[in-house]
Write a structure and sequence with these properties.
Length: about 325
């Protein structure tokens, strides 16, 4: 399995403002030495030496993650604005995929707002399967595409064949992968997913304010959270901010680290980045999360930011 992050901002998309772009360019220019400019090689080495928070951006788009089970088959989690570029990229593939399986954590705007702009959904050759543990998925999704909010309707203009699935308590089996789900602590209800395929496991657990019961060593918790090879986890806040924002439905990066350690996760990807945080601030949070993880007893835990465009083998 491997996953690609197409959007990892929380709450709303975060564009790089003119001031943010100017600040990045100014910082890069300050770092250039004459020796960095002497040849094409030197220039490329210089660019490669820049930290990722400076030479790019962590993520501007809201939640969307592609999980490729193998060369042929893939699943998609959430349809935030990241799904727009995902859809464009799929159109460029040869041959373009004809079948999509799209799982929703919940229906806050940052998890559905890209769907009306997901180009494969308009292609009559495409079969789109949409999943949620909640009933009424068709109504919920089609209602964001009605007058006066959107010029065309889902059923009137999306040419794909769409099938809406309500997930059973035991999850679903697809292409030989098992997809499990469970409810998370989040206003208005949200659901996390665990995928097992080829002896590996992947967790997509976002929009959750982790609580004491999530840490309890129950069979159900262990079955869902335990021993994941890779886990994408809500880590929107710093600890200070999480204390100010109790009941907002999100977690701090330090709690995310505690949680991943408690469940013996191998690799943790911090997700649902606070839109007010700059790339530099997110990088500082990452370094703090790594220091914190190193100080906790237990297995080795690798921590990273879920960065838009990254592809990770699970
Ligand atoms: Zn969200
Ligand atoms: Zn939410």
């Amino acid at each position: 399995m491997r996953f690609t992050v197409w959007g990892s901002r929380g709450s709303h998309p975060t564009v790089l403002t003119p001031a943010a772009v100017q600040s990045k360019i100014a910082t890069v220019v300050q770092r250039i030495r004459p020796i960095d400019l002497v040849s094409q090689d030197a220039r490329e080495r210089f660019l490669a030496s820049l930290p990722s928070w400076l030479f790019g951006t962590t993520s501007g788009n809201t939640a969307c993650v592609q999980l490729e089970l193998d060369r042929e088959n893939q699943l998609v989690f959430d349809a935030g604005s990241g799904i727009i570029e995902f859809g464009q990229a799929q159109r460029r593939r040869e041959p373009p995929p004809r079948e999509y399986h799209l799982f929703f954590t919940h229906f806050h705007y940052d998890h559905i707002q890209g769907l009306p702009f997901f180009v494969p959904a308009y292609d009559p050759r495409v079969r789109l399967h949409l999943y949620s543990p909640l009933e009424g998925l068709h109504e919920t999704l089609s209602q964001q595409m009605i007058h006066p909010y959107f010029p065309v309707t889902m059923d009137g203009t999306m040419g794909s064949t769409r099938t809406f699935h309500r997930l059973d308590p035991e999850g679903v089996e697809l292409y030989g992968a098992r997809v499990l789900w469970r409810e998370l602590n989040h206003p208005g209800r949200a659901f996390g997913y665990r995928v097992e395929y080829g002896g590996r496991s992947f967790g997509y657990v976002t929009d959750v304010e982790l609580l004491e019961p999530d840490f309890e060593q129950t069979a159900a918790n262990s079955r869902f959270f335990g021993n994941l090879d890779a886990m994408i986890l809500d880590a929107q806040y710093t600890l200070d901010e999480a204390i100010e924002k109790i009941n907002w439905g999100h977690s701090s990066f330090s709690l995310a680290v505690d949680f991943a350690k408690a469940w013996n996760v191998r690799r943790l990807f911090l997700f649902h980045h606070e839109p007010q945080y700059s790339d530099r601030k997110l990088e500082q949070n990452l370094q703090a999360a790594r220091r914190y993880a190193a100080g906790i007893k237990g297995g080795e835990l690798q921590v990273d930011l879920a960065r838009e465009g990254m592809t990770i083998d699970v």
